[in-house]
Amino acid sequence: MFDRLNLRVGGALLVLGGAVGICWRPPPGQYRYVDEVVAEAVKLRARRTHILVHGCVVPDSIERRVGTDEYRFRIRSLPWRAPAVLEVRYTGWVPDAFRSNTEIIADGRLAGLGRLEVVPDGIIVKCPGKYDPDNPPDWQCPDPAP
Fold it and tell me: For residue 44, what pLDDT is reported?
């Protein structure tokens, strides 16, 4: 009798715990371009909004703290968008294709009016869908318009 009751109560608690866990997940990030984030920085920072920022890594801006996985770099707007630059801080492993002048999406929150704090595993590098060894892809961002 008590075994059956314990099983029912345990099952109900498991279902309730799963429902609470699903409800407390952070909402999915808002997809924005660098220029949109810079323009709305005050609002996004005040709300602590979780955002996905799409841009290009500024050439020669990647800095790594010696002996750690802490990175600091800048991302700029894509060439067809309004010009803007955003400082990024990230701690963790970076994808193999991550380098200067590559197109990325960074997943994080604004910590300052010009700084994005990226979550662990929050860097996605744009790469081709199919790799052809005879014709290697150009993973570089196009140069910004003068």
Answer: 86
Calpha distance 15→139 (Å, rounded): 46
pLDDT at 72 over 50: yes
Dihedral angle computed from the Cα positions of residues 78, 107, 120 and 73, in that order, rounded to the nearest 10 degrees = 30
How crowded is residue 41: how many other Cβ atoms within 10 Å of its Cβ?
18
Query: What type of residue sits at position 134?
Result: D
For CA atoms 127, 129, 131, 134, the dihedral sign is: negative
Closest residue by Cα to residue 119 from 110, 108, 106: 108
Domains and CATH numbers, the chain: 28-125 (2.40.50.140)
Of residues 19 and 99, more confidence is placed in 99
Q: H or E segment at 107?
A: strand 103-112
**Location of structure tokens 């963790």:** 92
Residue closest to 103 by CA, chosen among 50, 34, 38, 43 = 34
State the pTM of this model.
0.73
Give the DSSP H or E segment for 60.
none
Q: Which residue has the tokens 């700084």?
A: 115
pLDDT at residue 27 tops 80: no
